[in-house]
Design brief:
mainly alpha
């Protein structure tokens, strides 16, 4: 595939990501879901163009969302996790397949997710400390339940993501004229 086609495909995917993130302006209650949906598209760039193009496409989408959208929440979620997740998911699964140890892949994915969520939590508490619910700061059970719920949601997202990648490879990719 020529460099021009790769650039065009990556730019189109970045625009599609920003379009999904802009949906949070119309549907503010599903901002996180729209950020997760937008996070699926960079996987197509990984498959078609490679890791570098996917990183550039995700970075452009995150930057445009943060610059252009009045509500930055979806853009922050995309920047901090959903935009780069397809890239490191593909890398982890590539090496997991070489090693033949699926448990290692899950451990690395969960550690990466925990790192992203920890960084977001630290950023959130430093910027918006007054907005944190008291149940998360005053009790010992609240944060544990939150972490367990987030890990379960991440595992479900990862499994669904893998199914969608398989569908993309089997049904959509052969029909693309690239």
């Amino acid at each position: 595939m020529s460099r021009t086609k790769r650039l065009s495909f990556a730019a189109l995917i970045a625009a599609l990501c920003v379009f999904c993130l802009a949906g949070s302006l119309l549907l503010p209650r599903v901002t996180l879901s729209l950020a997760a949906l937008a996070g699926l598209f960079p996987a197509a760039v990984v498959i078609v163009c490679g890791y570098g193009w996917a990183a550039g496409s995700a970075a452009v989408a995150a930057l445009l969302a943060l610059l252009l959208l009045p509500d930055k929440t979806a853009g922050v979620w995309f920047l901090c996790f959903f935009g780069h997740y397809p890239i490191w998911k593909a890398l982890i699964e590539k090496y997991q397949t070489k090693l033949g140890k699926p448990l290692y892949g899950w451990v690395l994915k969960l550690l990466g997710f925990a790192l992203c969520m920890t960084l977001m939590y630290v950023l959130f508490t430093k910027l918006f400390a007054a907005a944190i619910p008291a149940a998360l700061t005053e009790s010992a059970v609240g944060p544990v339940l939150l972490v367990l719920a987030l890990l379960a949601a991440f595992a479900a997202y990862d499994i669904a993501f893998s199914i969608l990648i398989g569908w993309f490879r089997l049904k959509v990719l052969p029909k693309l004229k690239l």
